[in-house]
Write a structure and sequence with these properties.
The structure holds three protein chains of three kinds. By secondary structure, chain A is an alpha+beta fold. Chain A has helices at 3-16, 62-66, 71-79, 86-101, 107-135, 140-160, 180-205, 208-214, 222-227, 233-236, 244-247, 268-292, 346-351, 354-358, 363-373, 377-381; strands spanning 21-26, 38-44, 47-54, 169-170, 173-174, 311-319, 322-330, 340-344. In chain A, the strands form three sheets. Chain A has a three-stranded antiparallel beta sheet. Chain A has a three-stranded antiparallel beta sheet with strand order 6-7-8. In chain A, strands 4-5 form a two-stranded antiparallel ribbon. The two termini of chain A are 35 Å apart. Chain B has a single domain (32-155), classed as Rossmann fold, CATH 3.40.50.12280. Helices cover 38% and strands 11% of the residues of chain B. Chain B has helices spanning 3-8, 14-29, 40-49, 81-93, 105-109, 140-154; strands spanning 33-37, 72-76, 99-103, 131-133. Chain B starts with a helix and ends in a 17-residue tail after the last helix. Chains A and C meet through strand 1, helix 2, helix 9, strand 7 and strand 8 of A and strand 3, helix 3 and helix 6 of C. The complex binds iron/sulfur cluster (SF4).
Amino acid sequence: MSSIEKNSVLERRIDSLLTDEITINFGPQHPSTHGVLRLEAKASGEVITAITPHLGYLHRGVEKNLESKEFLQGIPLLDRCDYLSSMFNSYIMAACVEELTEIEVPRRAEWIRVVAMELNRIASHLLWWGTFCLDLGASSPLLYAFRDREDVIDLLELISGARLLYNYIRPGGVRGDVTPEFMKKLEGFTNRFPPYIDEYEELVTGNAIFIERVTNVGVISKERAVNWALSGPMLRGSGVNWDLRINEPYSAYPEFTFDAAVEEGCDVMARYRVRMMEMRQSNRMLKQAVEGLPEGSHTAKVPTSVRCKKGMTYRRIESPRGELGGFMITDQDKAKKPWRFHLRAPSFANLAAIEEMSKGYMVADMIAILGSIDIVLGDVDR
Amino acid sequence: MGLIDGLNTKDDNILITSLEAALNWGRGNSVWPFTMGLACCAIEMICAGASRYDIARFGSEVFRPSPRQSDLMIVAGTVTYKMAMRVKKLYEQMPDPKYVMAMGSCAISGGIHADSYSVLRGIDKIIPVDVYVPGCPPRPDALLDGLMLVQKKMKQEKLRKNSDRFILAGK
Amino acid sequence: MSLSEETANRIRELVPEAESWDAESAELTLKGDFSTGIFAALRDDPITDLKYLRNLTAFERMDEQGVTLVYHIASLTHNHTVTVFVPLSEDALVVQSLTPVFSAANWQEREVYDMFGVRFEGHPDHRRILLEDTFDFYPLRKNFILDPAVNLRNIKEREDEMLKKILAASEEKAKPAAASSEKSASSSKSDDSKKGEAE
Ligand code: SF4
């Protein structure tokens, strides 16, 4: 739908439903806000006319704390920002440090990182899928999603020892090597998983009620998506072919074959499809890793207290939510701590567009739109 | 004689103790938790409620989104100063008797974020806590263990009004 | 992702008033009183095509007093990124807001204001975003010291002070009967669409 069409729909709806304007308060403790977000929505009848998000209920001051922690100590803190994809957050710190120390990461380590990150992406998308369907009123998908998410979590636990916050990726490589047992289980999982996704698609994607609720809802055009600096599935759902794994390759991604998932729909359905497709692509990458994991060491020789040279860097990667950036400055040679570390949080940037996306839609649509952004409040507030 | 008179006596009697046992049995086996999911720990709380860990085995699958319908508040996650006021208010909205579980080191003491300028160092500074479940995040198993401790506590409740947390208020 | 020569020259043409332009590292430095027209021009020119404000942040300079703003702006079609630095001196922490040019600047500028106290002129909604309005400090400035040892020593006092504020605020809110709680308003309104983690 073009923006002109959208505007006319908006006007029509407001015209026909013109009633008293009321203010609805969602949160900060509300199940559909996926955490502690507070939305103050103005609605004319059932049609949203304005939304004011109030953030900061989970602001934990991570960026300030990082300035008084050594690089390695900072990784657990960063893990707890975007807690659904903490592998990516660890990676961003590791990448920044590697750039400012010129540590050579062994090829095997990079491959293991890709495996860990893609597994984490699947886990994150699965949780998103379950809770998104829950938001739309379907409660059984959550149970399906968690059945398979536990499978992934088991794998991640096998390599890192933790279920949720891994602290696994380190400057120079990863904390521990993968075992043959892990590789065997991984292979089993990659074979098991595609039928699972088919099952989800059967269960939800073709469902008439579901389609009704998500198509042509939360439309944001290509130009506006770029102007809002949306990223990840939000951007690709609006038809922009921009995947940092392909466009700005990092780690071992150039060695893998996979496609960026792009959809032209610009609506909630498009974002849904992008994420479903991404899970398949991640599985494809994992399959390649099972076959071709190179031999070698899992980590470079790195001192326990890493020292960086003076400098500044902005590294960005494709997290499940979009562009995750780390902007790091060190103030001296042999620096032990960052002078400033800024986390460019994808959820924060994506959430900013919620008002534009949900204006003119129903209150219940707003829940679908919010769900389709896939926010993690730890990432929004940091 | 009657139920009310029986309750007003100074000593336990058979009426009170059997009613007590029945009430506590019912209460302890159908705890309705209030989803106070604030941060990372909330994900593990959802895991405990979902397929594998299946909190329904302990009668607590009815996660309520409203404080007015629940009797156990699981504070899962970091409480910031900005949120603290809301946590207290939601606690006050819960009907008596109410129980609080502090899940994760953040809710217990501020945890990894204790140095921060915006984090409350433990919810026991603002509301009474019954059970602490340590970990960062605690595994779902630990949450289930904590739940069983809450149930144990519930089963020791007394009906009589001179006990420290009486169940039938008033009479 | 280094810039092509054509783009580098084009940026030099478009931004003649730049303090410096380093084509090698794609770093542009502007004065604090730049006009937003520069960014609009860089955005609309088909060669530079810098449409994507991927990151906006700030840091405090180490040598002298002051804050430097950092803008990372990218072109998704040509796949290049330009970093724009805007050094501000301590007595003039104010710049033009980029929100009319990039919607994405809206929240990110508010965050910089929240954390550093830099003011953005012409911003449509100039409020703190993460911290409460009652906070009277800018936490990411270096003069706001976060020393665990100091903090732990004063922890009792600071906590008491904060809690007093919180409790006072909650009592104040509880007073007027009309101000029904946030929670009850939301749960009654939205029972249909969100059954929560209930079933
Ligand atoms: S205890 Fe750990 S896992 Fe739980 S909320 Fe705090 S930081 Fe997150």
